[in-house]
C-alpha cells in the first residue's frame, strides 16, 4: 500500500473521537450555566388565621355567658342544646347574653328577638341599639331576669305587665326612645336602678313618685321632644328626693 495512504488512515484513526468520548463530551457552557441555576421558590399563599370562637364551653359553664352573633344560635334542638362552632351547650345553662347578631347596630331590624325567650334561666340580657319600638309582653316569660339593658334602642313603650318581672333589679333605657312609663312599674319591688337619661320623656312619669324601692335614678340630659326639652325644676327634684329617700336623682 502506498506509504502516504497508510499515514492518512493512521492520522484519521487517531484524531476521530471514540464513542465514549462522544458520550462524555461536555455540553456548551451556556447549557451548563442554565442547569446550575436554582429556580426561585414560588411563595405559598398565607393561610388565613382560624376565627377564634366568641365563647367557649367552659365560659358558659362557669359564667353562663353567651355572646350571640346569630339569632338562630338561640334555638335549641330537641335535646335542649344550643350548637355553635361545633360546641354543644345546654340552653338552660345560659344566664347572660350579649346580643350582637348580624344587625345588632342596625335599626333596620324592627322586630323583638323572640329567640331569647328560649333561654328560661336568663338573668342578664343586652339588646340595645335595635329598631323595635315596643318591648312585648312575652318578655315576662323570663322570670329570672335581673338586668335588662335596652340602651340606645328605639323602644318607646314598655308592656303593662312589666311588673311580672319580679326579680328585675336593673332597667337601663339610656338613650332610648322611651316617652313614658306604665303605672304597673310601681310593683317592681326588686328594681333598684333605673336609667332614663337621654330619653324622650315629655314629663316626669308619675309612677316614679311611687317607687320608693329605687336606689339609683338617672334623669340626666333628657332629649328634645317636638322641639321642646323637658327641664326638671328645683321643686320637682325636691319632691322626688322626699318621695325616694334612698336615692339622689341624677339630672342636668
Describe the structure.
The chain has 252 residues and is of the alpha/beta class. It has a single domain (60-243), classed as Leucine-rich repeat, LRR (right-handed beta-alpha superhelix). 17% of the residues lie in helices and 14% in strands. It is built from five helices and eleven strands. The strands form three sheets. The protein has a seven-stranded parallel sheet. The radius of gyration is 39 Å and the shape is elongated. Residues 30-38 have low confidence and may be disordered.
Topology:
Blueprint: H1 3-15, H2 19-24, H3 29-36, H4 57-63, E1 65-68, E2 81-84, E3 87-90, E4 96-99, E5 124-126, E6 147-149, E7 170-172, E8 193-195, E9 216-218, E10 224-225, E11 228-229, H5 234-243
Parallel strand pairs: 1-4, 4-5, 5-6, 6-7, 7-8, 8-9
Antiparallel strand pairs: 2-3, 10-11
What are the key terms here?
252 residues; alpha/beta; Leucine-rich repeat, LRR (right-handed beta-alpha superhelix); 7-stranded parallel β-sheet; 5 helices; 14% strand; elongated
Radius of gyration (CA) equals: 39 Å
Largest sheet: 7 strands, parallel
The name of the CATH superfamily reads Ribonuclease Inhibitor
Total beta strand runs: 11
Distance between the termini: 134 Å
Give unreliable regions as ranges.
Answer: 30-38
Helix fraction bin = 10-25%
Mean pLDDT: 78
What topology, given as strand order, has the largest sheet?
1-4-5-6-7-8-9
CATH T-level topology: Leucine-rich repeat, LRR (right-handed beta-alpha superhelix)
Number of helices: 5
CATH architecture: Alpha-Beta Horseshoe
Strand content: 5-15%
- Oligomer status: single chain
For the record, what CATH class applies? Alpha Beta
Amino acid at each position: 500500500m502506498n506509504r502516504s495512504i497508510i499515514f492518512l488512515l493512521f492520522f484519521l484513526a487517531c484524531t476521530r473521537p471514540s464513542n465514549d468520548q462522544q458520550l462524555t463530551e461536555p455540553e456548551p457552557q451556556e447549557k451548563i450555566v442554565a442547569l446550575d441555576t436554582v429556580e426561585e421558590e414560588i411563595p405559598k399563599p398565607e393561610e388565613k388565621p382560624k376565627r377564634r370562637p366568641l365563647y367557649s364551653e367552659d365560659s358558659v359553664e362557669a359564667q353562663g355567658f353567651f355572646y350571640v352573633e346569630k339569632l338562630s344560635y338561640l334555638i335549641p334542638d330537641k335535646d335542649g342544646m344550643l350548637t355553635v362552632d361545633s360546641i354543644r351547650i345546654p340552653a338552660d345553662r345560659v344566664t347572660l347574653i350579649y346580643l350582637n347578631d348580624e344587625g345588632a347596630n342596625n335599626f333596620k331590624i324592627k322586630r323583638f328577638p323572640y329567640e331569647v325567650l328560649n333561654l328560661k334561666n336568663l338573668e342578664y340580657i343586652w339588646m340595645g341599639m335595635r329598631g323595635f319600638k315596643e318591648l312585648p309582653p312575652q318578655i315576662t316569660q323570663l322570670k329570672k331576669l335581673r338586668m335588662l339593658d335596652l340602651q340606645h334602642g328605639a323602644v318607646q313603650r314598655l308592656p303593662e305587665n312589666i311588673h311580672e318581672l319580679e326579680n328585675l333589679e336593673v332597667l337601663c333605657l339610656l338613650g332610648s326612645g322611651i316617652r313614658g312609663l306604665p303605672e304597673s312599674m310601681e310593683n317592681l319591688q326588686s328594681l333598684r336602678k333605673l336609667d332614663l337619661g337621654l330619653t324622650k320623656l315629655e314629663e316626669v312619669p308619675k309612677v316614679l313618685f311611687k317607687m320608693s324601692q329605687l336606689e339609683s335614678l338617672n334623669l340626666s340630659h333628657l332629649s328634645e321632644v317636638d322641639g321642646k326639652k323637658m327641664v326638671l325644676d328645683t321643686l320637682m327634684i325636691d319632691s322626688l328626693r322626699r318621695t325616694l329617700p334612698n336615692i339622689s336623682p341624677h339630672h342636668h
